[in-house]
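Exercise: predict the fold of this chain.
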Amino acid sequence: MRPRLVYYLDPAGYGGAVKYVERLVHSLDHEEFDVHVVCPTDAEMAPFLDALSGLPVTLHPLARAAHLKEDAYLSTRTPRGLLRPIVALARLPVLREAAKTGLAAAALATDSRTSRRVHALLAEIRPTLLHVNCDHFPDRTGRLAMVVGHRAGARGVVATIHQRPQPPVFPRALSHYYDRRALRAADRTIVLSRRFVPLLREGYAAPAEALTIVYNGSPASCFEQRPSRLRRRDLGLAEDAVLVTHVGTVIPARGQIVLAQALVSLLESCPRLEAVFVGRGTDAAYTAALQDLIARQGAGRLRWIGHRDDAVEVMRLADIAAVSSFQEAHPFALLEAMATARAIVTTDVGAVPETVEDDVSALVVLAGDVEAMAAGIRRLHDSAPLRQRLGEAARRTALERFTEERMVRETVGLYRALVGRP
């Protein structure tokens, strides 16, 4: 009988964590595993749901549950309801600790109720293996699935943490009770960067023997040495432009405005420079600010073209690929740029320093440094030999270390070890 492998996803939207599961599900041997996916089915997840169609996968809709502590971790969200007066009190130094304890107690009560609902859902599915994917940690309900996984019948529980773990911010024993339990309950916790290991061990007492690094990888199609199936004129670009591309969801963490500011500063001195931003705008205010900057100062040479299923083909048109993020784990956009032999300028976030070497396979700059980003782009703009050297070195590194085949093989190896299969 095939092991029943259940992927659990409760992401903030379609991003790297969802794409990771999408690629695993596509690459698995479905004769070996009976695959089930638990995830939200709202409009934001439409690309993922479309990618699953036609595969032998059973889908289980997950209703989003509001989570009090989520507002405390993600400061960009506006507190509402009962949380508003608690957060207001927390701003007064004399009441800060009492307010934090009240918020932690409320979060613990909410977690307890939510964990029972998550347990009921998983117990109905009866997983042999449960793979929980947290697009950040602590996340919405994924860590609760880790806690109840074995109780719901799973012989093995695997978790992947896709972003830099948030540091504990409330009284640890109370507020982080379920967070710490989750990491003790998982048989294996996959992290995407060595930088995340001490954060999980020191902040949440994660057992060292359960933490495993499995880097992301690019699919074989990205390594094909061929021109793009698109033409520059299809996107309104000049054929002789030195083209910069950025691929990623339009949110503050991806730093598109920093990149746009760097590009604007170069337009006068680099008359052939053009740039295309590719990605879904999920943060309305930030997307509007980016569009306004492009419209006012882009001189018609910067453009945002929204989400495209063929983002890698747009990247193949580019001379330079930029990764401007403030926060990443192991960005697929970086790996795809490496696989397609693009010259890359990237910020030093997450696993980037473990993936590329500055001035060998990419130019690495500090996150948020507009001048450093502009200087890196200027170097690549001015030197075609440098672009070729960095692009070839990046592709060699990706072939050696960062293929999707290797990512899937290592992950499936964990599955087989947990269910006792060779």
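Check your answer against the key: Residues 276 and 303 are 5 Å apart (CA to CA).
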